[in-house]
Specification:
Radius of gyration of chain A: 16 Å
Number of helices of chain A: 6
Largest interface: A-B, 46 and 46 residues
Strand content of chain A: 5-15%
CATH superfamily of chain A: Winged helix-like DNA-binding domain superfamily/Winged helix DNA-binding domain
CATH architecture of chain A: Orthogonal Bundle
Distance between the termini of chain A: 35 Å
Number of domains of chain A: 1
Oligomer: homodimer
Amino acid sequence: MNQLCPRFEKAMVLLSTRWVGLILFELLKGAKRFSEMEADLPISGRLLSDRLKLLEKEGIVERNIYSEFPVRIEYTLSEKGKALEPVIKDIQRWAEEYVIADDIHGKEAE
Amino acid sequence: MNQLCPRFEKAMVLLSTRWVGLILFELLKGAKRFSEMEADLPISGRLLSDRLKLLEKEGIVERNIYSEFPVRIEYTLSEKGKALEPVIKDIQRWAEEYVIADDIHGKEAE
DNA sequence: ATAATTAGATTACTTTTTGTAACTAATGCA
DNA sequence: TGCATTAGTTACAAAAAGTAATCTAATTAT
């Protein structure tokens, strides 16, 4: 029935998880703190926290604690995470070429 | 607050829509009928139908009707859809290199 | 004309996932 | 002591996803 390569399917399901792509995009720019990502992305703290835990579990994101005042926690991409850069870059290129700006709040009437 | 390019964000939200990546993967192999995709993908008819309508609306997928007996309807990628090939190929490469087969039914105990 | 076949849409219903806002924990400073 | 700051967590309501069964349209053999 299902003709897909299990690794590919797993990768697709992971990368299709809402907000994961945008979080990867943020982290490709460099280390980020929780609150920076929360400010930059259209996503609530609860979901950001969920997604960061997922990505950490998958070995894509690393969490680094700096015991300063106030405490600073930085998220960075692992090698596995950085290896996703081509995917994100391709999506950026595609978006520039094909996604119509007008259509962004795309709520066509029925 | 939100620092993202609107086109990129829209592309990300679209491509992160569940099953869209797998549907694109199917269609990159060539024209497909509804029932073929339903058989190949781990997705119900209702969702497949929803996603095909979304992709058609976005100009990524084309729906072609052949009035044979019985009627045949084929889905293909538009130019905009075919332009997503690099994204899918990158994900395949990444999956082969980094996704661990063991971990596919990834349900770690808490 | 009517029943059978195929594609795909729709409906009704349950389960998951989201989003929001209020709350907690750890730390150091006034 | 108690307030400010960062980084989350919890509880709960709302939205979306998932399933299976049913429905519709086109065609054609009877």
